[in-house]
């Protein structure tokens, strides 16, 4: 009965995360649709390469949002014959795709901006409307970031955290673009493509970071030391567990799979040892963001 309750709690948390992710991502889709159209069109007519680059960055956000929606839908599928632990790693895969999108977009921005800087005579004078659009985009993106990060933190989703920081990178790029446009308006025309270059560096660095993190998670990276210590404390606090060893963890989406050897009095019956192991497993499942705990009982002979 207790194990069924644990499974039900995990399923309820999964559904809550799915609903929160879907709502926040659709809001992001709506905002990024408007910003992409607004920035690119204004950038073309005002002559601002920086604003066009920022609009392309918003477009990459839009693509990323749809990747998140698809992964969020897939990851909530129940375990089946081919996926005994469920489909949670769709989220890790989505984070890898998000990082790849950012990295490729960033490289393209760097290439375009570098070409402009090498031919300064071709840099046009920017119209002041580009500045107002860049400042408005900055405000919208910062508000979107704060909202998405709050949701991601509440439901403990690394995929949503990655998407939120993607929005924050847009806000940072909008600030850089605004400064570049101001410089252009003051007569320093080269500052607009320089702003586009900085945006490209921001996007490329963030893309590489997301790619590296998600790739490590797909390769069964262990959780951080602090989380492992908390799991150890919970296991050792279970009545009958006198020690543990060979504790191993690996990430499965935003959940954790734990393998551990429990040291239990060797004079106890098999049933008593089993009951202690079940109690330790349920304690971890109830108190940590863990998908499954595989225990092995090692008898202590005194």
UniProtKB/TrEMBL annotation:
Its main location: membrane. The chain crosses the membrane at residues 26-45, 93-114, 126-149. This is Cation diffusion facilitator family transporter. GO terms for biological process: iron ion transport; zinc ion transport. GO terms for molecular function: monoatomic cation transmembrane transporter activity. It comes from the Bacteria. It is a multi-pass membrane protein. The gene is fieF_2. GO terms for cellular component: membrane. Residues 26-219 form the Cation efflux protein transmembrane domain. InterPro entries: Cation_efflux, Cation_efflux_CTD, Cation_efflux_CTD_sf, Cation_efflux_TM, Cation_efflux_TMD_sf, CDF_Transporter. NCBIfam families: CDF (TIGR01297). Keywords: Cell inner membrane, Cell membrane, Ion transport, Iron, Iron transport, Membrane, Transmembrane, Transmembrane helix, Transport, Zinc, Zinc transport. It is found in: Membrane. SUPFAM superfamilies: Cation efflux protein cytoplasmic domain-like, Cation efflux protein transmembrane domain-like.
